[in-house]
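Hello again,

I reread your note about wanting to compare the complex against the isolated chains. To keep things tidy I'm splitting this into two emails, and this first one only covers the full assembly. Below are the input lines as submitted, including protein chains and any nucleic acid or small-molecule components. They are followed by the predicted structure of everything together. The single-chain runs will come separately.
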Amino acid sequence: QEQLVESGGGLVKPGGSLRLSCADSGFTFSDFHMNWIRQAPGKGLEWVSYISSSGLTIHYADSVKGRFTISRDNAKNSLFLQMNSLRAEDTALYYCARGFGYFDLWGRGTLVTVSS
Amino acid sequence: DIQMTQSPSSLSASVGDRVTITCQASQDISNYLNWYQQRPGKAPKLLIYDASNLETGVPSRFSGSGSGTYFTFTISSLQPEDIATYYCQHYDDLPYIFGQGTKLEIK
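Full-complex prediction:
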């Protein structure tokens, strides 16, 4: 069964860092483009970042550009999001999602809370 | 950035009703428009891609139409399990933007 599982969320102080991971199962990870999408508590969905299947093409939302870094390890079937200089407004449930343009497989999310 | 205006923001309907949600783009996005369902406490689920294509395994009571700047999402006969928030999302260009969501409740 195809599945994505996020991990690495937690409570961090403003200005701190956190590294999220997303592990896949049930499909050939290296064949697919991947994304991070977040949802602040009680709010809508915000696309955060995209990485191509090869890892050579990367894009970010303006709200995280220069602070977040997306990467992947196709040998380990894993996607990552390094988050630095975290702000209160980064508090959200972070989903990894598969796809280019549309997202056909989502994980259950990992919660990031930025608070002093 | 392309903006997506989704309406209504909330909707209450009875089981068996036909329900329609609209999504308007701030510029022509061709058919690069998707629809998702997010049940309470769950991850979003892709229902419709490229404006009108039903994702595999999604019931046929769900449908989508439109192109350019105006799109509609329809549930032909509302079922109790359709209680959820529905989002449109464009992918004409980066950044991908989601609509504000429509919270659907059963009367």
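For quick reference: The mean pLDDT of chain B is 97.

B.
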